[in-house]
From TrEMBL:
NCBIfam families: pheS_mito. It is found in: Mitochondrion matrix. This is Phenylalanine--tRNA ligase, mitochondrial. The lineage of its organism: Eukaryota, Fungi, Dikarya, Ascomycota, Saccharomycotina. Its EC number is 6.1.1.20.
């Protein structure tokens, strides 16, 4: 048994992710077995999976313009805090760095929270491309975030990162403009030509939101460069959006007749990311609401310098797009858990290169259970049980058998000053009916674990 104990201590000090062993640290490690199980799935590489089909569609569309993008789709999910945050200029106290939002393996390694973690590396990789005037890359990968549980949130989702840089040139004499500006102008034309071929017309809101102190231009770029780079960036993203929604709208017209508008409203809004300036987000008006698709901006020179580019040598842009929610919309997938299902009734419905509407194979009823508890008296602050930690406990016990978890009540007792909170858990399987006994057993485990970890008093 001494050996056993030694073995289990050693084991607990390491985790294995995709065949590599990583040292853990009991103070910071919060990556769980249920998350580690998802690290090798690579849904974005499956050519007959909605996420893979969508990735392929976007890559092809962007490269149909001028074949400029080199693709990187095989990066391992474990990255360093340097890659995920520091290299991109995240301040030390940025909330994204906290253990409540991010899955850490140890102090310096984590599961990437966005594909931007590989930007620096890719800028290095494309630096010496043969065509020095312009180089570009696309990255697709699984990303990990601790978050709530519901139909549109899952701790793993997929992003595509895109970026391009142009090499700057000097004007050969005072009267002519630098050659790279002509190159960017020409590149914009190429994207516009593709955009004009799409049958769905995009209406863009005021494209000229003035840059402000909050969303400044970088000093090393001229006004004209900012204008041209942002035009190229915005038209490229609009091309992605029109490709995706074009496909969707055409199939809707085919199925449901001609009353579907062939117009798509999109808007650009100012945003902030530490490694781009200025920055924007694009939103699409879809079925009565604005849907956030993508963040982007002009790359900050700091990042380019870190990647080994010479000062003022290059200008460029980057974007990061979430694939899962677009895939859900495109394929009419009602619950994000389905993307992870290995049920053949799901997987056989999709095939390479085609956008089809998912046909639900069955609906299994859910069972609601409430968990209500008093927080320990000495620390009445609700944040001592961080909501994401509670989600993790439930996810670890019930896995994909939980559809959603919602805070339904929270109050402080007027006399004792103690705080009570209540969460409602919907247990529901996508593949089968759950028995009452099964649900009760899961619920009991959730309750005991909460008591064990947080010393709460169940009500
Ligand atoms: C980022 O992750 C930035 N790295 C994007 C970026 C790249 C900006 C390059 C500038 C330059 P954000 O956290 O907003 O930003 O996520 C980007 C997109 O991912 C969102 O627009 C959304 O489409 C998708 N996304 C974000 N969170 C989730 C989630 N929990 N589930 C599904 N999709 C999500
Ligand atoms: Mg965002």
């Amino acid at each position: 048994t001494g050996f056993r104990r030694l073995y289990s201590t050693l084991k607990a000090q390491h985790v294995e992710i995709n065949g590599t062993s990583y040292k853990t640290n009991s103070k910071i490690t919060n990556v769980t077995d249920s998350i580690i199980k998802l690290t090798g799935k690579s849904l974005h590489l499956k050519e007959s999976h909605p996420v893979g089909i969508l990735r392929d569609l976007i890559e092809k569309k962007l490269n149909s313009v001028d074949n400029a993008f080199k693709t990187f789709n095989n990066f391992e999910p474990v990255v360093t805090t340097m890659e995920n945050f520091d290299s991109l200029g995240f301040p030390k106290d940025h909330p994204g760095r906290s253990t409540s939002d991010t899955y850490y393996i140890n102090e310096t390694q984590l599961l990437r929270t966005h594909t931007s973690a590989h930007e620096l590396e890719c800028f290095q990789k494309i630096k010496n491309n043969a065509d020095n005037n312009r180089s570009a890359f696309l990255i697709s990968a699984d990303v990990y975030r601790r978050d709530e549980i519901d139909k549109t949130h899952y701790p793993v989702f997929h992003q595509m990162e895109g970026a391009t840089v142009w090499k700057r040139t000097k004007a050969s004499d005072g009267s002519r403009e630098p050659a790279h500006l002509a190159k960017i102008r020409n590149d914009i034309k190429l994207v516009e030509n593709q955009l004009n071929k799409e049958n769905v017309k995009i209406t863009v809101n005021d494209d000229t939101i003035p840059l402000s102190e909050d969303n400044p231009k970088q000093e090393y770029m001229s006004d004209l460069e900012v204008d041209l780079c942002s035009q190229h960036l915005k038209r490229s993203i609009e091309l992605i959006v029109s490709e995706v929604f074009n496909k969707k709208i055409s199939s809707m017209i085919e199925n449901k007749g001609n009353d579907i508008p062939k117009n798509l409203k999109v808007r650009w809004i100012n945003a902030y990311f530490p490694w781009t300036a200025p920055s924007w987000e694009i939103e699409v008006w879809w079925q009565g609401e604005w849907l956030e698709l993508c963040g982007c901006g002009l790359i900050r020179q700091d990042v380019l310098l870190k990647a080994g580019y010479r000062p003022s040598e290059t200008v460029g842009w980057a974007f990061g797009l979430g694939l899962d929610r677009i895939a859900m919309l495109l394929f009419e997938i009602p619950d994000i858990r389905l993307l992870w299902s290995s049920d053949e009734r799901f997987s056989t419905q999709f095939s390479k290169g085609s956008i089809t509407s998912f046909k639900p194979y069955s609906k299994h009823p859910g069972s609601f259970r409430d968990v209500a508890f008093w927080l320990p008296k000495d620390k009445p602050d609700v944040h001592q049980v961080h909501e994401n930690d509670l989600m993790e406990i439930i996810r670890n016990i019930a896995g994909d058998l939980v559809e959603s978890v919602k805070l339904v009540d929270s109050f402080t007792h007027p006399k004792t000053g103690r705080k009570s909170i209540c969460y409602r858990i919907n247990y529901q399987s996508m593949d089968r009916n759950l028995t009452n006994a099964e649900v009760n057993a899961l619920q009991n485990m959730v309750c005991s674990k909460l008591v064990e970890e947080y010393n709460v008093e169940l009500r």
